[in-house]
Amino acid sequence: MASSSPCRCPLLGRVRLWVLAFAVGLAMGAGAPRAGLAQSVLYKLAHSKSAKSRLPFTLQRNLIVVPVTLNGRGPYYFMLDTGVGTSLITDPGLRDSLGLRLGQRFLVAGVGEEAPLVAFQTDSVRVQLGDKASSPCISFLLLSDDIFDLSSYVGQPIHGILGADVFRSFVVEVDAEEQILMLHDPIRFRAPRGRRWAHLPLDIEGDKSYIHTEVALNDSVRMPLKLILDTGAGHALSIETSSDARLTLPPERLRTHLGRGLSGDVHGYLGRVQGMRLGRYYVRSLITSFPDDKAVQAKVQVPRNGNIGFELLKRFNVVIDYPHNKLWLKPNALYRDPFEHDMCGLELLATGPQYRRYVVQRVEPGSPADRAKIKPRDEILSLNLAPAESFSLTQLSRLLHSADGRELILFLRRPDGEIYPARIVLKRQI
């Protein structure tokens, strides 16, 4: 049975911004009772002679989604996120289907005035990752309500989030092009060789990893920043200007809706920084989020200046090495792709049994979609004469970022049943 006296746990030590959708912030705060969430048993490879395990994943909207077997059943689909300290089951329906036992009860508080969410510790979960990596008993937090609705954002079923326990157990190699994870035994792991590999020190503080790197805000301001390494954030770079007085907004910027968190909408600015140093590599003209973050900064336990997300990391083959405190990077075929923001102004959510119906959640004021008189709750029926269900949500998102001046013809169904045609010309806004 669950404990009758809940522990108040200030979640959301950060707000994680996903371009074109809402944010999810998941970081156990200083007020959380750590002993109850301790991971006494982590993941291991099945055979003592195994040096690594191969795990395919899908890259959906810049998020790593892996198939997972829980208590011998599945597959279930989890995001892999360095930014989350304690792994989460976000689908409360798994409690009954997996026979999960509920332990200590937590109240998970947001940034603002929203009523706290109830979550329960459950330590009865046997986890299998791929053919060789497993754990007989991993602790999760089971949310009482799927308030994040990650499935509608990603466009496929999502049952939870795997966090730091995976990265503490293995050296994790991520190949975004091939969509393959390699989970290496830390003892047997050998550092990658070759002149194209760069490495950076990786600081582990609490359950999160940080890099220190130089960012050029403009021609005259270059400064070292401490950034969370965040595979669960779909943007390239986010900078919290309240963390340092020298961090200022770029002169060319776009005031916009950046995402959604537990306590409501997150607003801020989008702009570009001149460049960012990653070892021997210099990445130019990054689209950067500048959230209105004073309320968030007040809850930060470990001082930092922002985070880097998978829109940047996917341009490299990445080796995340918690056991040896290193991050290895090698450019891949995506390295020279430009950083682009949404050129349409639509935020879409996937619905229906197969998540192949697409409904407009929000329209950016003044955007091409707004000028085309597209409205929230409109459903996209076709795009350039192709049925909407022939696209994944990730493919639709790419089209909306695709090319300045590109013309799109949409047919939409209004909530009253009216079929509405719309012509949109994509426009680069930043």
Automatic annotation (TrEMBL):
Source taxon at top rank: Bacteria
Residue stretches making up the PDZ domain: 345-415
InterPro entries found in the cross-reference section: PDZ, PDZ_6, PDZ_sf, Peptidase_aspartic_dom_sf
Protein name stated in the entry: PDZ domain-containing protein
Organism: Hymenobacter oligotrophus
